[in-house]
Amino acid sequence: MAKWREVCRADEFRRTKKFVHRRKEVALFKLDDGIYATENSCSHEYSELSEGMIMGDDVYCPKHGSRFDIRTGAVRDLPATRPVKTYEVKVEDGVVYVKI
Ligand code: FES
């Protein structure tokens, strides 16, 4: 069952952060309206989306350039064809939590 896990203070990262809990890797992204989280691995091959480039609400995979909607995990550009999982995020008293 998913539980809220403390990640870090919200001001500890600028745009992206990788968070690992029991071998589960999560990528956190700071957008204009809040913080969002997806699984860290691209759905095409293994590549860390937390190392990707953010453009608008999308992240580009650093390996082959697939583009994912950070809010929904949907694929917006090939070669990936499957979405990435997203996770709930909350910020309380300046601390970021992700539900995994
Ligand atoms: S590993 Fe991400 S697009 Fe290929």
Tell me about this structure.
There is one protein chain. The chain has 100 residues and is mainly β. It has a single domain (4-99), classed as Rieske [2Fe-2S] iron-sulphur domain (Rieske Iron-sulfur Protein, 3-layer Sandwich). It has strands at 4-9, 16-21, 24-31, 34-39, 53-55, 58-60, 67-69, 75-77, 86-87, 89-92, 95-99. A hairpin with a 2-residue loop joins β2 (16-21) and β3. The protein is globular and about 40 Å long. The mean pLDDT is 97. Bound molecules: FE2/S2 (inorganic) cluster. FE2/S2 (inorganic) cluster (FES) is lined by residues 42, 44-45, 47, 61, 63-64, 66, 79-80.
CATH top-level class = Mainly Beta
CATH architecture: 3-layer Sandwich
Got a strand count? 11
Count of spatially separate domains: 1
Beta percentage is over 45%
Find the CATH superfamily.
Rieske [2Fe-2S] iron-sulphur domain
Lay out the secondary structure.
Elements: E1 4-9, E2 16-21, E3 24-31, E4 34-39, E5 53-55, E6 58-60, E7 67-69, E8 75-77, E9 86-87, E10 89-92, E11 95-99
Antiparallel strand pairs: 1-11, 2-3, 3-4, 4-9, 5-6, 6-7, 7-8, 10-11
